[in-house]
């Protein structure tokens, strides 16, 4: 059985729910947004800072601002965001990535788990303590219309702007992943399994992944 399942996902494709169901099916731990709180606790970064910037680090005005203030000066950048003195000489973009990387590795060391997003596939691939043979890397996608529908119904997106927002969030996820891993987000060669969640639906997709994890 694969002990560690990483799930990369397009926004609205149901990756979070699928990951949660896979973990339940296998009886192992599940981590998604929990990684933010744990990374904040371990690194000294504020949870709000990590949450608001983790996928805006590679594009847009915020990333430009953060890179511009990566080396802290009084009253700007890190000092206004509540970052401690230990983070003064590393760019804020890197601080968030490293904080989450360390948290992901620590969680994996504790035992079998499902990890959603945050470049977890790349992180575990480069973690010597976790054998590659014990990791199953999944990428979840879905047709745009299905993603938009789910984003409206489950995440409360405005129907008038939902399609634009879904595309933008996916673009940010891709930029984040591509920047910090030097790989291509969603490229099938980087994953063990790439799944269209609309083909079987959320629950059946989760059961399929759990069964693959058992048998692989």
Keywords:
5 strands, 216 residues, 10 helices, alpha/beta, 11% strand, five-stranded parallel sheet
Report a brief summary of the structure.
The chain is an alpha/beta fold. It is built from ten helices and five strands, in the order βαβααααβαβααβαα.
Folded structure, characterized:
This protein is of the alpha/beta class and 216 residues long. Helix 1 crosses helix 10 (202-215) and helix 7 crosses helix 8 (162-181). The chain has ten helices and five strands, in the order E-H-E-H-H-H-H-E-H-E-H-H-E-H-H. The termini are close together. Helices cover 52% and strands 11% of the residues. A five-stranded parallel beta sheet has the order 2-3-1-4-5, sandwiched between helices.
Record the SSE blueprint.
Layout: E1 4-9, H1 15-26, E2 29-31, H2 34-43, H3 47-53, H4 60-68, H5 92-110, E3 113-116, H6 120-125, E4 135-141, H7 144-155, H8 162-181, E5 193-196, H9 197-200, H10 202-215
| Quaternary structure annotation | single chain
Kindly estimate the percentage of residues that lie in beta strands according to DSSP. 5-15%
Walk across the major sheet and give the strand order: 2-3-1-4-5
General form: globular
Low-confidence stretches: 58-88
**How many runs of DSSP E, i.e. beta strands?**
5
Largest sheet: 5 strands, parallel
What average pLDDT do the residues reach? 84
The string of secondary-structure elements, in order, is EHEHHHHEHEHHEHH
Helix content: 40-55%
First and last CA, distance: 6 Å
| CA gyration radius, whole angstroms | 17 Å
Helix tally equals 10
What structural class is derived from the secondary structure elements? alpha/beta
